[in-house]
Each structure stands twice: as C-alpha cells, then as structure tokens.
Write a structure and sequence with these properties.
The structure holds 2 protein chains of 2 kinds. Chain A is of the alpha+beta class. Chain A has a single domain (8-413), classed as Cytochrome p450. Chain A contains 16 helices and 10 strands. In chain A, the strands form 3 sheets. In chain A, strands 1-2-8-5-3 form a 5-stranded mixed sheet, with helices on one face. In chain A, strands 4-10-9 form a 3-stranded antiparallel sheet. In chain A, helix 10 crosses helix 12 (236-267), helix 12 (236-267) runs parallel beside helix 16 and helix 14 crosses helix 16 (366-383). Chain B has a two-stranded antiparallel sheet with strand order 1-4. In chain B, strands 2-3 form a two-stranded antiparallel ribbon. The chains are: A alpha+beta, B alpha+beta. The interface between A and B is medium-sized, with 27 and 24 residues.
C-alpha cells in the first residue's frame, strides 16, 4: 500500500509530486500552484508524503464531502497504510488512546457526545459578552502600550487561549507551557522524539488536571469530563486526550484565523470597509464565513484511509490506500464558489466552505470559533480604524511549516 | 415541506441551529439536534434547506 502508485494516470513513481507543496512567492493567501496544476483535470491525484508512500490527495469540494461523509473512509490511524502527518505522529500511534480524532462511528459517537456539550450554539452565544469584554480589554492594553505592537501576542493568541482555558478550567497561567508544546507538536519538521516529548508533557499535565477536577469539581468542562472518569465511563487517559485535543484545537486555530485575517483585510481595504461599517450582525457573521473560506488555515490535508474500494472523481481508491483531504483547496473550488480567489465578504454561499471539515469529524468547537471571530473582526477595525501593518507584507513570516497556517507575529501600528 | 432528523447520526456541530434557529435546536446535555417544527412557514424554508445542506452528518432530510 505504501509502494508505488498503480494508476496509469499518475505515471511512474518518480513523477509523483511531494506533499506538502510550497505556496507561490508573493501569494500567501492562495493554495500551492503545483497542487492546482496537479488537480486541474481531476479532483484527486497521487502525492508522495514524508514516508515515501503515495496516498491520494483530494481537492474537489463535492468529492471531499462525499469521502468525509462515507463510512468506508476511516480515521483509524493504526491501520497499515494510514498517511500520517509526519514521523512524530506515526511514532506516537501506540501511545495515543482512542478518541474522536482516531475512531470511527459508532465508537466515535460516544466520545463526541461527551465533547460537544460545552460547544452548543446556545452555550457559546451566552459567552459572547465575556468574549467581547476580553477583546476590549486586550485592545485597551495594546493601545496603551508601545507602537508597533505584535497583534499575535497582544490579541490573536491570548483571546482564544483565555476563552478555552476558562471553558475547560485550565489555569491560564500555564499558557506558556501548553502553547509552546502545542506549537511544536504540530510543526511539519517535528522529530519522532520531540513529538513524543511534547505529547507526553501535555498528556501528563492533563492527567494531573483531570485527577484534580475529579477530586475538586468546578463549574467547567474538564470537571464534567472528570466526573465520567469517576463514574467509570471513560479512562483517565481518554479524558486527558479529550482535554489535550480541546486545548490545542481551541487556541491554535482561532489565533491563526485572527492574525491571518487581519493581514488579508489590511491588504483588501474595500473589504475591510464592509466589515468596519457593518451595523448588521449578519454582515459580520457572513464576513467570518468568507474569511474561513478564503484563508483556509487547515492546509496540511486531513488524513484518512479507505477500508473498501471507492469509486470517486473518475478514479478508484482501493481498500487500504491513504487519502489526504486538502480542505483549503475545496474552498477555492470554482464549481461551488464563483471567482474563488476573490475575497468577497458579501459572498452568499460562503458558509458552504470546508474550513471546519465535513462529516462526523467536523470541528467540535466551530461555534466558539465563529463567535470569537465575529467579536474580534467586528471590534478591532472599529476601535482602531487606522490600524496598519508596521512592516511590508513580504517581511511578514507565514507558517508555511505548520499544519495550521497563519502568521508567527504581526507587527501593527496606528495613528 | 416535511423535515425529519436522525438524532443517532447527529454530531452536534450546531450548524443547523446557527443557520435556522427557529426550526432546529440542540439538546442541552450533548448538543444533539432537536426539531422545533417539521413543517416551517414559507419564510423559514430557505434557511431550513440551507441547514440541511451544511449538516456535516447528513442527518437532516427535507421532503418538498
């Protein structure tokens, strides 16, 4: 399965291009040109990944939705031929307990039901005033400080980190520790050893926290999860895995969406004006969907494996073959989004994006992310209408080497 | 219009409630879909269809 491809369309093994691919110089917001070329005729093709195997990469919007909703497509990372993200993920397989991330239905359903409770639409809407207050406070602090400021450090990272910490009941004062370990754990170049170390450190931390919450419950999501451990429904390591997943996904992704969107909006002043002048919350909500579509921060490709032969897009994915679902490319599929490379905050069907994935594994925290982004985008440019980059765009360092795309830091200034 | 939902398939992404809050709700305990009306008035029909389209678990079905 990890051998050379057999499809005639892809030719000899030497011609299979490597994944991940670089974005074009000067086009930080568009998918890699080589990927577009590769999938120009068909919505899927073979790529070669770090271990030499040649899974399918799928870029079409319809094909992604079909595969991500297909019970013959598995996230079971223990199956031979699974296209792991990197050496570190492959090496730690045996140490990761079953969780929402690596189990299929019906096992997945049990884990998922435990994790969804804090993230319902209504519960998250009730947090909007808190999110607004934290955003205003962070902006006040930034405005009172020196110029230029790093927007990532001042706002993009602390807001989602504070929110997920409060929601889970993780002490915010530990944020340096978990941010650092989370960031290293999702680097493309992470070694097996380092991946194990960062995963182990986070896991140990969450195990201790779950045990503490079981002994002294508080009004937070980790205490609810810890109660299930006490009741014997799940193990401590399963609970710690849930906590780790929520903690990492809860701060890293929204932080990238905030930083990257600010760059994109400052580069598109006409679109920034739509957002800044919006009185209608629906306009802001629509803008968030379009930015989720346009920025596509999950650009490394979600990993799956076929458990049966599947005919799709004019090809047959054989049982046991790996599948890389490159979500970002689907958001630029012209069959669904006319003029897909245009940032258009009033785009009507923007919410049909695949930014949160599709199928039963679609992002658990998406409603929280939406409210955070609605508040931040809706507040920042109104509070600081003269906000601008303090350095030229080509000096901004983008996270080309991370599973989640974004900016490492964002020097901004204002009048 | 006749709407049906499959609670067993629901993954509580909240997309339906966010899209058509007068047609769909979520259970407090786990976020699973609750149908508020299986035959919404005409002015809510488009939102209900959109909710079915964005449901990641394909758990919402609409008959004309």
């Amino acid at each position: 399965m990890s051998d050379a491809p057999t499809s005639a369309a892809t030719g000899s093994p030497a011609e299979v291009p490597e994944w991940p691919m670089p974005r074009a110089e000067g086009c930080p917001f568009d998918p890699p040109p080589a990927l577009r070329e590769l999938t120009a005729q068909k919505p899927l093709a073979r790529v070669r990944i770090w271990d030499g195997s040649t899974p399918w990469i799928v870029t079409g919007h319809a094909e992604q939705r079909a595969l991500l909703g297909d019970p013959r497509v598995s996230v079971d990372e223990r199956l031979p031929g699974f296209p792991h993200w990197h050496e570190g993920m492959a090496a730690a397989v045996a140490y990761r307990p079953r969780s929402v991330f690596n189990s299929d239905a019906p096992e997945h359903t049990g884990f998922r039901r435990i994790m969804t409770r804090p993230f319902t639409f209504k519960r998250v809407e009730a947090l909007r005033p808190t999110i607004q207050k934290i955003t205003d406070d962070l902006i006040d602090t930034m405005l009172a400080g020196p110029r230029p400021a790093d927007l990532v450090e001042a706002l993009a990272l602390p807001l989602p980190t504070l929110m997920i910490s409060e929601l889970l009941g993780v002490p915010y004062e530990d944020h340096d520790f978990f941010q650092e370990n989370a960031a290293r754990g999702i680097a493309h170049d992470v070694s097996a050893e380092e991946s194990m170390r960062t995963f182990g450190a986070l896991n140990d931390y969450l195990v201790r926290l779950v045990e503490k919450k079981a002994a002294e419950p508080a009004d937070d999501a980790l205490s609810e999860i810890a109660a299930l451990v006490t009741a014997g429904d799940i193990s401590v390591s399963e609970a710690a895995m849930m906590g780790t997943g929520l903690l990492i996904a809860g701060h890293e992704t929204s932080a990238n969406m905030i930083g990257l969107a600010v760059v994109a909006l400052l580069e598109h002043p006409d679109q920034l004006a739509v957002l800044r002048d919006a009185d209608d919350p629906k306009v802001v909500a629509g803008a968030v969907e379009e930015l989720l579509r346009y920025l596509g921060i999950i650009h490394g490709g979600q990993r799956r494996i076929a458990t049966e032969d599947i005919e799709i897009g004019g090809e047959v994915i054989r049982a046991g073959e790996g599948i890389v679902v490159e979500l970002f490319s689907a958001n630029r599929d012209a069959h669904v989004f006319p003029d897909p490379d245009l940032l258009d905050l009033r785009r009507e069907n923007a919410r049909h994006h695949n930014a949160f994935g599709f199928g039963i594994h679609q992002c658990v925290g998406q409603q929280l992310a939406r409210v955070e982004l609605q508040v931040v985008y809706g507040t920042l440019f109104r509070r600081i209408p003269t906000l601008r980059l303090a350095e030229p765009l080509d000096r901004i360092e983008f996270k080309h080497d991370r599973l989640a795309y974004g900016v490492y830091s964002l020097p901004v200034t204002w009048e | 219009m006749k709407i049906t939902v499959e609670q067993d398939k629901c993954v509580a992404a909240g997309q339906c409630t966010a899209t058509a809050p007068d047609v769909f709700d979520q259970r407090d305990e786990d976020g699973v879909v609750v149908l508020l009306t299986d035959d919404p008035p005409a002015e809510l029909a488009d939102d209900a269809r959109d909710a079915a389209a964005v449901c990641p678990a394909l758990a919402i079905h609409i008959a004309p």
